[in-house]
Design brief:
The chain has 3 helices and 12 strands. It is mostly beta strands. The strands form 3 sheets. The chain has a 7-stranded antiparallel beta sheet with strand order 3-2-6-9-10-5-4. Strands 1-11-12 form a 3-stranded antiparallel beta sheet, with no helix packed on it.
Length: about 190
């Protein structure tokens, strides 16, 4: 006997109600990343929760930061950046780069990448990019990067995840390998 299907409650979005928008979209888990670059005054970085791949050919990614973020503007001006996907034990790093503290890089150790952007030690993955373009997207700045180098940590690390309005960890006991298939149907 098939399980009964529930009809989800429908809520129309009034553009004056950002709380509903934020509450519903908080149900979409996202990996937490710190985007870094080297500016004329030294290294800069900002925590982002909106980062994703865009294209395989050419290899493109995008991140979004506050439209008036000085750190995001410095990343765009630098012309190159690195997305550091944070590990589950890097909540302090996340907080340092999300705040307005003066010495964000005091919260971690790092090495310069080939493009000069800081690679944060302990991250799950690193994606080094050239800025392809940037443009306003509502109250955020979208920064598209062409991937030049990328790597994952040699040992398995669990990512730091933002879900339900808070930082959380994935439970490794619940993780299982699910065979994947190509998404050729996507282009149909």
């Amino acid at each position: 006997m098939p399980a009964p299907t529930a009809t989800p409650p429908q809520r129309s979005l009034d553009t004056a109600d950002p709380a509903t928008f934020r509450s519903v979209l908080a149900q979409v888990p996202t990996a937490v990343s710190v985007v870094t670059a080297t500016a004329p005054d030294g290294p800069v970085g900002v925590t982002v929760g909106s980062f994703t791949s865009v294209s395989l050919d050419p290899p493109l990614v995008v991140f979004y930061a506050g439209l008036h973020s000085a750190s995001a503007a410095a990343v765009v001006a630098a012309g190159t950046f690195c997305v550091n996907v944070l590990s589950h034990d890097q909540q302090q790093v996340c907080g340092a780069f999300a705040g307005r503290t003066g010495d964000r890089f005091g919260s971690c150790t790092w090495q310069p990448a080939p493009n000069g952007a800081p690679l944060l030690d302990g991250a799950v993955a690193w994606i080094q990019c050239d800025v392809e373009e940037s443009f306003p997207a509502g109250d955020h700045l979208a920064v598209v990067g062409r991937v030049r180098h990328l790597a994952a940590a040699p040992e398995h690390r669990m990512p730091l995840v933002f879900h339900g309005g808070r930082l959380t960890r994935l439970d490794p006991a619940c993780g299982r390998h699910a065979p994947t298939q190509r998404f050729d149907w996507w282009d149909a």
